[in-house]
Amino acid sequence: MDELTLRTGFEIELLAPAGSDRQALADVVAARVGGSVRRAFHADSQPSPVPGVSVFRHLSPAFDVLDAQGAPVALLVDDITIEADLAPVPGSRPRPGHRGWYRLVSDDGRLLRLVERTVDPHAPLATVLDPVAELFGVHVDVFPAAARVNDPTGASIAVALPLPPGRERPCEIVTPPLVRDHARALERLLGPARELGFTIPQEAAVHLHVDAGPFRRSSAFANLVRLFAHWREPLWAALGTNPRCRRLAPLPDALVGLVEQGWQDTDTGWSALRDAARAVGLTKYADVNLVQLVATRPVRDTVEVRILPGAIDARSVVERAALVERLLLRCLDPAPLPLPGPDAAHDPRAALQDLLTVAAR
Questions:
Q1: What span, in angstroms and rounded, lies between the C-alpha atoms of 361 and 358?
Q2: Contact 290, 270 (CB under 8 A)
Q3: Residue 256 burial (CB < 10 Å; 0-12/13-18/19+)?
Q4: CB-side exposure of 278: number of CA atoms within 13 Å?
Q5: Could you give the CA distance from residue 294 to residue 171 in angstroms, rounded to a whole number?
Q6: Interval 66-89: pLDDT, tens
Q7: Exposed (0-12), middle (13-18) or buried (19+): which is 34, by Cβ within 10 Å?
Q8: Which of 71, 100, 206, 314 has the highest count of CB atoms within 10 angstroms of its CB?
Q9: What is d(CA 193, CA 274) in angstroms, rounded to the nearest whole number?
Q10: Which residues are 149's β-sheet partners?
Q11: Helix (H, G, I), strand (E, B), or coil: what is residue 97?
Q12: Are strands 102-106 and 36-47 parallel, antiparallel or unpaired?
């Protein structure tokens, strides 16, 4: 099996069998490592169906697996891009609020972050917003299947709603950064998942996170852009990128042109390129997420590669990750990446290997 040398974090999207959920996997993994499970919230967002509100942000049930020493093993969360496999079986009547689970919804990201810091993820739906109400000096409005807090003027703060049917089944495994034995660490998560009947959902992907620091240099950043822009089709073919995976997109044309403007490999050159790249309007929902790389205050200081296909065995994940790692290391060579040759479409893996072989000379 290919080995990895870079400190790498993984996000692996799976689907629990009907009737099960991501907590079931968290419990088994924790038991096998002699650890524990800590209930948490996971923040996400999605388009709003309400006129005048562009997006709703929400907190959903998540499960933090810790080992016997309290160190993180994995965080298991929902992934709202997983939808196709959640369609109800004809004749069934799925009910919301599996295990009493709920979402906390807000139209303001700052308020939702305040809510997350204030509430207890173990609290039941009817009382979870009590600390928020106390903070604003109001009462919680409790309904048969919801709870709501408005501020004293009547403006909405947050609403607690039963988890939609099926949303307990998506299970994105988020690992901490792994520095060694990547395959072994992944297999202790994916082995139990297979045993419990977890599967690869139709829209699944695997994301890789590597440290952003080495790529904060003009030549390295330019090569990253060249790799994921000019070599997009060979990369997709060689890695087997899932065409049903959502939230993938090519890098902006403006960014591709920007990196060819002769930026110097100096602190000043990088600062100028970083600011110009940020002004292009980058989004995380691309083949490679460069947002944190150019951010002035990174939240997660990584480069995120998002085009690996779904997988449920460590060998498959690490083999593809090893190819990506070698290509990322090639980006650190100041020599500009060339454009793909005419043979890249016929044998993309060989073309990528040639790219690495030339760099090694």
A1: 6
A2: no
A3: middle
A4: 13
A5: 29
A6: 999 999 999 999 999 999 999 877
A7: exposed
A8: 206
A9: 40
A10: 158
A11: coil
A12: unpaired
126-182: per-residue pLDDT in tens? 999 999 999 999 999 999 999 999 999 999 999 999 999 999 999 999 999 999 999
Tokens of 288: 């490679």
Q: What is the DSSP string of 194-252?
A: HHTT-B--TT-EEEEEEESGGG-SHHHHHHHHHHHHHTHHHHHHHHT--TT-SS--PPP
Cα separation, 135 vs 119, in Å, equals 11
Give pLDDT tens digits for 191-229. 999 999 999 999 999 999 999 999 999 999 999 999 999
User: Between β-strands 8-15 and 36-47, what pairing exists: parallel, antiparallel or unpaired?
Assistant: unpaired
Average confidence score pLDDT of the chain: 94
Residue 251: both structure tokens together: 């890098």
Q: In the Cβ-directed half-sphere of 55, how many Cα atoms lie within 13 Å?
A: 9
Structure tokens at 96: 């919301």
Coil, strand or helix at 115: helix
Is residue 158 within 8 A of residue 149, CB to CB? The reply is yes
Kindly state the tokens that stand for 219: 């030549």
What angle is formed at CA 244 by the lines to CA 187 and CA 340, rounded to 5 degrees?
Answer: 90
The predicted structure's pLDDT at residue 3: 83
Q: How far apart are CA 329 and CA 6, in angstroms?
A: 9
In one letter, which amino acid is 131? P
Cβ pair 234, 345 in contact under 8 A: yes
Does pLDDT of 304 surpass 50? Answer: yes
**Beta partners for residue 57, in sequence order:** 45, 106
| β-sheet bridge partners, residue 211 | 302
Q: How far is CA 1 from CA 313, 318, 320, 352, in A?
A: 12, 8, 10, 19
